[in-house]
Amino acid sequence: MSIELKRIYASASSADGYRVLVDRLWPRGISKDEAQLDDWIKDVAPSDELRQWFHDNSSEWAEFRKRYLAELKDHREQLRPLAEKAEQKRVTLLYAATDNEHNNAVVLKEYLGRLGS
Q: Is the separation of the CB atoms in 57 and 63 below 8 Å?
């Protein structure tokens, strides 16, 4: 399975493969043309409640991860095609967060890896 993570603000590259924005909100300062997206799956992003909770409690990474994984279970069938696509070609999950290690794309990549197994 080939899933990469990248900030939406980094330049698009042909090496990105299938580019998917995984945030619920459109990132500030990026036009649709600049984003060069193949898909935007905002429905599988953390709920507004969880997103706001994590914004206020950013040191609670383990709890955010646990809660978001629980939310993702409700989107299992919606995410299965993306996991299958990652078996065939590179998929790059795009996110706006400044923290590259503690964001929803990190958790989503982990979840997709489980689906593909």
A: yes
CA dist 49 and 67 (Å) reads 11
- pLDDT-based confidence at residue 117 (cuts at 50, 70, 90): low
Q: What is the pLDDT of residues 25-42, one digit of tens each?
A: 999 999 999 999 999 999
Per residue in 37-60, pLDDT (tens digit) is 999 999 999 999 999 999 899 889
CA-to-CA distance for 54 and 52, rounded, in angstroms? 5
Half-sphere exposure of 11 (CA within 13 A, CB side): 2
Question: Rounded to an integer, what distance in angstroms lies between the CA atom of residue 7 and that of residue 21?
Answer: 9
DSSP 8-state symbol, 44? G
Q: Is residue 35 part of a domain?
A: no
| Domain residue limits at 113 | 45-89+96-117
Dihedral of alpha carbons 51, 57, 58, 60, sign: negative
Q: Length of the chain, please?
A: 117
Q: Give how many domains the chain has, as a whole number.
A: 1
